[in-house]
Amino acid sequence: MPLYDCVLLLKPHVKQEALLDLVSRVGKHVIRRNGVLTEIKSVGTVQLGYGIRKLDGRFYQGQLMQMTMMATPNLNKELQYLNKEDRLLRWLLIKHRNTKYGVDVLGDDNGKGMFGEFTRSSLYNEDDDIDEGDDDIDEDDDDMNHEESKEEQSASGPSDGIYQG
Fold first, then answer.
1. 77 DSSP 8-state letter
2. How many other β-carbons are positioned within 10 Å of the β-carbon of residue 75?
3. How far apart are CA 115 and CA 31, in angstroms?
4. In the structure, what pLDDT confidence band is assigned to residue 35 with cuts at 50, 70 and 90?
5. 3-state SS of 105-162?
6. Using alpha carbons only, what angle is made at residue 153 by residues 150 and 155, rounded to the nearest 5 degrees?
């Protein structure tokens, strides 16, 4: 089963009980279809970039909820009843692509290949000494390269009358 995020944007005046009722209805719907609800997150009241017009006015704020779930691919068709919900301003179902979870993360080598190329010495290389004199050498090299390019330009003379400095 793929992983989905269901984002619900509710009207700002919706009470907490009504919000929880709507979220529990969606959650129960997913569970009845053998899905798993993995996370429910409330962002709170958010300012919208533009007003959303509904029958009872234009809304510039909304209450944002995010539900993460594993469900069957036909979940989008099954959640179309949310279009008729008068407490919602907008809803969006987002499918996670190329997400590995559970046993798929481990693969054939039981997860050892994922971090096997990093050894402790390569992650925490204690032998690296920072040479603070490098900055001075780099500046001197740049000055010398700049002077050499000026000498080359003056020796060759103006080729087409365009200054190249």
1. H
2. 21
3. 35
4. very high
5. HHCCCCCHHHHCCCCHHHHCCCCCCCCCCHHHHHHHHHHHHHHHHHHHHHHHCCCCCC
6. 110
Higher-confidence position of 1 and 9: 9
pLDDT of residue 156: 54
The full length of the chain comes to 165
Q: Tell me the one-letter amino acid at 77.
A: K
Q: What is the DSSP letter of 61?
A: E
Phi and psi, residue 143, nearest 5°: -65, -40
pTM of full prediction above 0.85: no
First to last CA, the chain: 62
d(CA 50, CA 59): 8
**Among 80, 94, 90, 87, which residue's Cα sits nearest to residue 3?**
94
What is the mean predicted confidence (pLDDT) over 122-134?
Answer: 55
What value does the mean pLDDT take over residues 123-144? 54
For 122, other C-beta atoms within 10 Å of its C-beta total 8
Give the integer Cα–Cα distance in Å for 94 and 96.
Answer: 7
Eight-state DSSP code of residue 96: P
